[in-house]
Every structure is written in C-alpha cells, then in structure tokens.
Amino acid sequence: MILVSVIALVLAALAFLQASSSVLTRKQPALATQLFPLNGLAWEQMASREFMSGVTEEADIVPSAQSAADTARRAFALDPLAPKAFAVLAFAEGAGETRQEVLGAALEINRRDLLLQGLVLEGEVARKDYEGTLATLSSILRVHPEQKTNFFPVLMQALADDAALPALAGILDRSEEWHDDFLGSAARNPAVTANLATLRLSRGAVDPDIDRRLIEGLLAAGDVGKARNIYVAASNTAETNARTPSPIDWRKDFPPFDWKLADEAGFRAQLAKNQTDLELFVRGGQGGPIAERLIAVPLSGFTVTVEHQLGPPEQVKDVRLQVRCFGDEEPFYDEPFRIRRHSFRISNVPARCDFVTLTIHARAWTGRSAIRGTLSRLAIGPN
Fold it and tell me: Where does a domain end: 127, 152, 181?
C-alpha cells in the first residue's frame, strides 16, 4: 500500500510538472524543459528560438540552424511529429538533396507549420516554380496574415524575374486579402515597378486603384514612359499632349496625366454642374497650384489657349500659367492670365523635356477679395 501511494505521488508530481511545463512551453521553453525534460514541444520551441535568434541576414540561416540542430534532434527524439524540429534540421543541411529529403518527410506530417512552409517557399523560388510560390504564399497568409511583411520580400524577388510574370498575373485580381497590400508595396518598390507595369499591361481592365498606385510608383522611379502607358490602358484614351491641337477636359481620375485639383475649404478647383467648366475659388490669404497636369510636348514648343470668367478683374493677373519640366521644382515659363481669352505661346522648352507639368497657379493676397469663377476652355496645340 505504501509503495502504491509513493508511485501515485510520483506520478501525480510528474503530471503536475508536465502540466506546468505545457503552460510555459511557448512563453518560457527553457524553464519548461527544466520542469519536465521529456516535453518534446518545449525542446522544439527552444530549437526554433535558438535558430531564429541567430538569423539577421540570409548568410546566417545555415550556421544558425546548425547551432540549433542538437536541440532540434532532442526535440525530434521526444516528439517525432515536431514540425519545427524538422524545419531546423532541414535548414541545417543547407541546399541539396538531404534538405529535400528531410523536408519531404516533415511535410508528410505537417503542412501548416510556418517554418516548414517558409522552407517550401524558399525551395520553390530557388527552382523558379512561381505558380507553386504563389500557392504556398497564399496558404501561409490565409493562416498567418500578420506575416505579410516577412514573406512579401520573397514574392518581390519573384516579381523581379521576367519569367515569373505569367504565373503572378493572378495577383492583379485581388482575390486574396493580402494581394492589395502586396500590390501597394510593389508599386512603391523601384526594383519591381517596371515588371509590375508589364504584368498590368498584359491584362485587360484592372481595379483603377491599382493603376493609380502604379502610375505614382513609376513616376517616383522616373519611368514616365511606362507610367504614361499605364495611364493610356487605364483611361482607355490617348494621353493629353501638345502635338495635336485639342481642348482638354477636366478629368481627375488618373493624375498627373489627368488633372490634380486642389481640394481645400478656401482653396479649391472642381468640375462645375454643367460638367464642362472648372470652378475656381481662392480665399484671401490662400494660394498655390490649384490645378496641374502632366503632358507630352514637342521640342518646338506649344500653345495653351485659355478662356475664363474669373474675377475680380483687377486680380486676374494673380492667376498664372506655369510650365516646368517633369521632376523640376521651378517653372521655365510663368505668365499671368489676361482678362480676356488669351493664347500663351511656350517656345523655350528645354531640350531635356519630353514631358512638362502644366500648372494653373492662383493666389488671393491677404486683405484682398477672393478670386472666383470658371475656366470654360483650355486647349493645347503646337506652335
């Protein structure tokens, strides 16, 4: 009876230690292994932490995994189903057949572990299996959406490869929750914006917000030509240019190839109710670019013709037409509006300017009346 009681007491103590160890396994795996050395999950967590704590760049992966390999083997010995132990051991093998054998065995057991999925993803990118890359990444981010910033660089690497574009086209459908965030990041990444543009141009219509982001990203990277191509595809129209005479509308769907209009309480430009005029309002003490648009120009120069109904008449001169090369801060042309219809002849276009920003700059000085009225026509043509 005493022996049975002692055994029962020992078993109860072991059960308590194991329960305490389970609670501590994720938060304090080292303490969990001390409380219950046979806790395979705790050893697995320790192996994972040892591995991850030693990685700050790609070159650290194999050495760090090798340092954690003994802990991973102990975890595997105690729990042959421990996926993170498999992952650490696979990383420790470096690139090669042995890694793939370890990984294959692990995937037979668990296909949802983040480290294992990361290994799968790495292998798919290395093999240029981009359809598999996209499928694996979607699987990861459905379960672990918080890991987007960690895994997006892998897909950026794929997007930089021309051969990957057909497999990645589905991202533009935005069918997964993470697609939108990735497209936003890619549109701001100069290393992949050109390929993202090529991918977009291979499709029909896409969400206009994608086109806006892509135009913005390409312009930030200085690729005006591709940005213009995206605009033409997005707007289903030829871009405004100064090579053929034409009036231009006041659309603002895809700036800066469409108009970028000021929109503040005391400083705004907006389409009038008749849908053909542009209304301007500038309160006293306000001023700056109120409407601007990017256009292609011939080296020989061009003419801008303006018809307006702005007032008061004595302040019309405080509304000016400015022209600057794309990317420049200062205009090379700056002339005031006239009271009546007027044609501005711009003949001093710098040779380096294929595209210029056309700006309507308005200012109502402090203590003066507000400037208000409409622009009824703005036409651009060659000199």
Answer: 127
